[in-house]
Amino acid sequence: MRIISGERKGMALKAVNGMTTRPTTDKVKESLFNIIGPYFSGGTVLDLFAGSGGLGLEALSRGMEHGIFIEKDSRAFQNLKENISKCRYENCTEVYRNDALRAIKLLIKNKVQADLIFLDPPYKKQQYYNMVEDIVANQMIHEDGTIVCEHDREVDLPTVFLDFHKVREEEYGSTIISIYRFVEEEGDYIG
Question: pTM of the prediction?
Fold first, then answer.
């Protein structure tokens, strides 16, 4: 696992061995960033269920200026901190070892807003996708922001979370990437 592009291109990232995390493959990551970027002019990325931080760190490498990482698993959290340090992003990141649901409540309370949100919970924890509605309802995502949900083929996500509509869905083997953006007109999205 590595940073694919941007200022930290080629940097290897440490992942947790075992079944507690499921890192996004480099192939999927490259395809995803070609769809949502590929590069950014500042902004904040929120990486929920961050694992090793591969998605959030890739976004920082490609131009996001601030990253917020949430990870509950202690081993993954340790690797996440090491990867942030290795990439020299300590000064532009916040890292929390917390359950994503609790972290979202705290971020809402603190009126945090992001431009890009990655939601990649363990595939068996489908209820975590309900957080997207809280994120949108509490304006944690800017109107011109993007929410990316990575999920298993068996998880059927809605086409709409309030004003955020599924604008694209891509399949990579058993992995599905659903991309949500703010849409004013009903006809502007792909369902």
Answer: 0.92
Residue 110: per-residue pLDDT: 95
Distance CA 18, CA 141 (A): 32
Residues 174, 153: Cα–Cα separation, whole Å: 6
- Assess contact for 44 and 68: CB atoms under 8 A: yes
Average predicted confidence (pLDDT) for the chain: 90
**Which H or E run contains 149?**
strand 141-152
At 19 the pLDDT is 47
Query: b/e map of 28-60 (b: 16 or more CB within 10 Å)?
Result: bbeebbeebbeebeebbbbbbbbbbbbbbbbbb
For residue 120, pLDDT beyond 50: yes
Cis peptide leading into 38, omega within 30 of 0? yes
Say what the pLDDT of residue 21 is: 53
Helix, strand, coil tally for the chain in percent (to 5): 30, 30, 40
Give the residue from 88, 174, 111, 101 showing the smallest Cα distance to 132: 101
